[in-house]
Amino acid sequence: MSVTASPMNRKRLFIAGIVLVTLFALCIIGLVTLFGRLTGTTEEIGQRTLISELTYCSEGQAKPCVVSFGIDADGNMLVNILLTDLSFPSFYLKIVRGESEAVYECQRIASAPNNASCIGEKMPPGEVLHFILVSIKDDTLLAEGNLSIIGLAFPTLEIAISTDTPVGTPMPTTTSDFIPSTPTRRFLPTPTRTTTPSYPNPSYP
Questions:
Q1: pLDDT per residue over 85-130, tens digit each?
Q2: Which of 21, 30, 139, 162 is the most exposed place for a label (fewest CB within 10 A)?
Q3: Are the beta carbons of 154 and 70 closer than 8 angstroms?
Q4: Beta pairing partners, 96
Q5: Could you give phi then psi for residue 81, rounded to 5 degrees?
Q6: Would you call 94 helix, strand, or coil by DSSP?
Q7: Which phi and psi (to 5°) does residue 185 adopt?
Q8: What is the DSSP letter of 196?
Q9: DSSP character for 106?
Q10: Cα separation of 52 and 68, whole Å?
Q11: CA dihedral in degrees (42, 44, 47, 52; nearest 10)?
Q12: Do residues 104 and 79 make contact, with C-beta atoms less than 8 angstroms apart?
C-alpha cells in the first residue's frame, strides 16, 4: 500500500500546485486591472476639476470669462474673452445651439495679450447657448458654460478726414466796386467871378 500511495500523493500535490499557481496568477491579473481602472478614474476626476466654468466677467470673477459680444463690418459675431494669463493655451470656441454647433476662431489681441477675440456665425440674442473653450493642441476641454447673449455691439463708422486743403469757391474780390471805409472828400472848384465889362462913358466933345 505504501508503494502505491506515494505516486498518488505526488500527483495530487502536483495538481494542487498547478491550481495554486493559477489562482495566484489570476489574483495578480485582477489587481493590475483594478489598479488601472482606479488610476484612470483618478485622472478623469483630475481633468474634470481643471475645467473652469465659463461665465460673464465681473469683479473678482475667475478667468477665463466672457467680456462682451459684438458684430463686425461683415456681419460676423465677435466674442471677447478675458484669459487668465499668457500661459493660457491657444484655443477655439464652440457654441452649441440645440443640435447644431458652430466653431469660432480665436486670437489674442496684440495690444492686450490677456484678451482674445473669437469670430464666427452670428447667434440670436436672448437665447441660452452652450459655450465651450477647446485647446487647439490636443482638443482638451478648457472651460464651458451656458450663457445668453444680452447684447451685440455694432461697429462704429469711421469718418475719413482729409488733410488736403479743401477746394471751395473763392470769395470774390473786386477792386472796382471797393467802397472805402472812410468817405472821400470831394473838392469843388472855386467858382470864378465873372466881371461885367463897364461900358465907357461917351466921350463928349
A1: 999 999 999 999 999 999 999 999 999 989 999 999 999 999 999 9
A2: 162
A3: yes
A4: 101, 130
A5: -125, 135
A6: strand
A7: -80, 125
A8: P
A9: E
A10: 18
A11: -120
A12: yes
The answer to whether 142 and 133 are in contact (CB under 8 A) is: yes
Please give the grid coordinates belonging to residue 47: 481633468
The per-residue pLDDT for range 47-99, each reduced to its tens digit, is 444 688 999 998 777 789 999 999 999 999 999 999 989 999 999 999 999 99
C-alpha dist (Å) from residue 199 to 193, 194, 196, 202, 205: 18, 15, 9, 9, 18
CA–CA gap between residue 106 and residue 79 (Å, rounded): 9
Residues in the chain: 205
Q: Are 93 and 79 in contact (CB under 8 A)?
A: yes
Q: Which helix (H) or strand (E) element contains residue 115?
A: strand 112-120
Region label for 22, one of left (φ > 0), alpha (ψ between -120 and 50) or beta (otherwise) = alpha
The SS3 call for residue 107 is strand
Compute the Cα dihedral for 178, 179, 184, 186 and give only its sign. positive
Distance CA(64)–CA(111), nearest Å, equals 18
| Angle, CA 149 vertex, CA 106 and CA 141 arms, to 5° | 45
End-to-end CA distance of the chain: 231
β-pairing, 128-135 with 100-109? unpaired
The answer to whether the CB of 117 falls within 8 A of the CB of 104 is no
* pTM assigned to the model: 0.53
Of 157, 140, 83, 153, nearest to 117 by C-alpha is: 83
